[in-house]
Amino acid sequence: DDNNDPMEIDGSIMQAPSLYGNNNRWLQGHLEYLRDTYNEEHDLDDSEFQKKFVDIIPSNWTVCSLTMYPNTNELSIVRLQAETTPTIIKLSLQRTRRSHNNTSENTMDFVGAIDELKQIISESDKTISTAKFYTEKTAVNEWWKRRMQLDHQLKRLLNTIETEWLGGFKGLLCGNYHEDIEGLRKFQRKLNQLLHNFVYGLPPNSNREKSQKMIDINLNMCRVFLRLGPDPSNRELDDIIYFLLSCYESQGVDIDYNRADIVQLKNQLKGEINRYHETALIKNIDTMTRKQNDHVILIPDNHLHPIPWESLPIMRSQPVSRLPCLSFLRDRIMRSLAANDDDDNWTEVSINSKKTCYVLNPSGDLMHTQNEFETAFKNMDGWQGLIQEKPVELQWQNMLESRDLYMYFGHSAGQSIIRGQNIKKLKHCPVAILMGCSSGTLVDKGEYDADGYIINYLLGGSPAVVANLWDVTDKSIDQLTGKMFNTWGLLKNNNNNTNNNVSLVEAVSSSRDACTLPYLIGAAPIIYGIPVYIKRS
Prior knowledge:
Blueprint: H1 27-40, H2 46-54, E1 61-69, E2 74-80, E3 87-92, H3 110-129, H4 137-166, H5 181-200, H6 219-226, H7 234-249, H8 262-282, E4 295-300, E5 320-322, H9 326-339, E6 349-352, E7 356-360, H10 367-378, E8 384-387, H11 393-401, E9 405-409, H12 420-423, E10 431-434, E11 443-445, E12 448-451, H13 453-459, E13 464-468, H14 474-488, H15 504-509, E14 525-529, E15 532-535
Parallel strand pairs: 1-4, 4-5, 6-15, 7-8, 7-9, 9-10, 10-13
Antiparallel strand pairs: 1-2, 2-3, 11-12, 13-14
């Protein structure tokens, strides 16, 4: 009720927002900059796009844009890193696995994958809605058996998407790993030499015929191949080889696959990949370990947002978040730079953990969740919240504008507490953790961008929003939430004047296996936004 008077809030709490810095005189200039930037976006050429969108990305971040073409069953991946030319690959989902005996194997198409995902979630919803009717021990065991079957089915589906859709190119979705730069350049030379020998039957040299085209595989593509690890599968090697040979074919070079010894080339490629990793280990470089504070941001299109990409095997151990578009990422980067009066040096976004507000079990029927967190929340210095009580909208709107972190533990995403149109208007929008069922679901709008309640937080300027892609059970999601809080350091003594070096994104990714059902429940939470750290004060 907008006519109600705002609740009284302690004056020490109603202070200038600290999320992006305490002095917000920069904000007007920043907003004017964004207005001008949005107006000129459609006129940018390649070099201007690189400067305004790509080169501003922090060096420890990797951005991957995913676009699906359902009519042709093709997946386009664009990989972006600062000071690096974008890597663009279009993969046919119907590409066949060709082998030396000319056998072929079709991959799962897009519609088939989405239909199976919907079927898994639908069956999960049925088990959740009927759980209260299972009281006998035998029936309860059967209920858990069905839930575990769905968990395994979802895991298999995600494995299939990685194996058949991404194949030898799954490294495109990886971030920054420790590398042996000398070994990397040597691998590049050997790979180019192997290909040239295979195509022309002799090593590349200055005396080769001018008609012999030389395809140079760049270092970024070499990194993608090396992310397969020291023992890539035959399917992954086939994927790489036929892609590389197609590069020569696209330049008019004829390749006789009937006479070509693909098996030998595959063994040679596998040997060079293994040699790179083994040589690096001798130099005490662990090439399978990602760099500290490494982060991947996905930008899935309207067709791909329902898929829990973050739980693909190649990504599950990585800190991964997502955003609806590259402009949203640009906005958050530029906002942080402007707030810190520094146009060049990136400073990680951090929150004051004392400036937390929460709504816990507003409907009164999530007693397990309340019992799990009530005591801890009440003991935290500076926190304000409501338990088994729904706030008045205007009161909570004022509360959100004074806080760095907002947590909601109720049904759905809290739409009944504050309307989306008012979230978008907040002068200061906090990080949001919305642990209700399907709180992160986006609704398809046909030719327009998919929409959902959490988008309001992003439009309002929130750095990050945690939400669930589908319905979850309270006890299981509470397991993940508790592990996430502990990993992030949220429930630690917030009088400690040290910075926690684990982001909220990493805390979520490292907590998925804390659930009894690591995929049916553990894959549901995703984060829209950028990494956010806890700052003690």
